[in-house]
Design goal:
BirA Bifunctional Protein, domain 2, about 40% helix, alpha+beta, 7-stranded mixed β-sheet, 11 helices, about 20% strand, 10 strands, 3-stranded antiparallel β-sheet, elongated, single chain
Length: about 350
């Protein structure tokens, strides 16, 4: 009787598996015949009630049927999956005659290449990077840098005011003032990269927004020789070992003495050409010794401490490095412009 029941279960399972048209139906059959509370598993759990001589034979037969049903369901699943895939492929035919999509790949903006390289050069000299807000107060942008109200130097930095005491910073020097304030009279060696803003006409050589990397060193016994050596090393690393620098007297309200820094023209190696207007040199940055008034206002004793500061225009260095003829190209995000400098960068 047990054998007849087992055979009936097997035939029923085979019939239902063969007629199944979906994987969902097969899962229902798997539960019906193989799950914990299925017919076969229930019969296996009652084997202990049979006489010892029948128990082994019935158990073997039930396990055999269980394995056959499992194999039949697995085979049917593969068959249905293959049919479904074939149907999907036939329905979703790809037209290989269509051209593929082309993705235009630009390059890293030469502005960022130069910014990162300048930063790396000064980091290798032991400088740290300092940052500060682009929306500044008059105190940090002007007054603590020895530019009091109504000082004529403010005319050179005509800028965007939010109110009479708040403005978009005209240089990254406010970061220096904030760093000196936090340092509380301790030595400093920092660079301050960032965007600056001045009310200027937008043309090939001017922009209302541009970027600087300013540097500041304050310690005991710092002199202008340290400034010259630092900038000379920077020029050689940035423009090549053949580049030489010269310092020319200038004026900045926050440094005394102040200098303009020129490098030998890469186009003529200092011999004189149309690019350098026959001088053999091209101006790249300004700097000088930190003014004693700036030291006093920011918590330093000028009899004990001295320092130097400098400011580098990132776009200017990039223009000299890559021969770019219009400063506005840095900000237009034109992939044709970026692609030109991909390999050079």
């Amino acid at each position: 009787m047990a054998n007849e029941n087992m055979e009936k279960i097997y035939q029923e399972a085979q019939s239902e598996i063969a007629s199944s048209e979906s994987n969902e139906k097969l899962q229902e059959l798997r539960v019906k015949f193989l799950a914990k509370k299925s017919i076969i598993m229930t019969m296996l759990s009652t084997l202990g009630q049979l006489p010892p001589e029948e128990r082994k034979t019935v158990g073997q037969k039930l396990n055999e049927i269980k394995n056959l049903i499992t194999a039949a369901i697995d085979a049917k699943e593969k068959e249905l999956s293959a049919k479904e895939l074939a149907k999907k492929l036939q329905k979703e035919t790809i037209d290989i005659s269509l051209p593929g999509r082309n993705y235009n790949v630009g390059g890293k903006n030469p502005f960022h290449v130069v910014k990162d390289e300048i930063t790396d050069i000064f980091l290798s000299m032991g400088f740290e990077v300092a940052d500060g807000p682009e929306v500044e107060t008059d105190l940090y942008n002007f007054e603590l840098l020895n530019i009091p109200k109504d000082h004529p130097a403010r005319d050179m930095q005509d800028t965007f005011y939010i109110d009479e005491n708040t403005l978009l910073r005209t240089h990254t020097s406010p970061v220096q003032a904030r760093t000196m304030e936090l340092a509380k009279g301790q030595p400093i060696r920092i660079i301050c990269p960032g965007k600056t803003y001045r009310r200027d006409d937008d043309d090939a050589t001017h922009s209302h927004q541009f970027a600087q990397i300013e540097g500041l060193v304050i310690d005991k016994d710092i002199n202008i020789g340290h400034l010259k050596a630092t900038l000379e090393l920077f020029a050689k690393k940035m423009f090549g070992e053949k580049r030489e620098i010269r310092l020319r007297p200038s004026y900045f309200p926050f440094t005394e003495p102040s200098v303009e820094v020129d490098i030998t023209c890469a186009n003529c190696d200092g011999k004189g050409c149309s690019m350098c207007k026959g001088t053999g040199y091209i101006e790249i940055l300004g700097g000088g010794m930190v003014h004693p008034n700036v030291l006093k206002m920011n918590g330093y004793d000028p009899d004990q401490y001295s320092g130097f500061a400098f400011g580098i225009g990132i776009e200017r260095v990039a223009i000299l490095r890559y021969g770019i003829d219009d400063i506005r190209k840095f900000y237009q995000n034109d992939i044709r412009f970026l692609r030109q400098y991909k390999k050079k960068a």
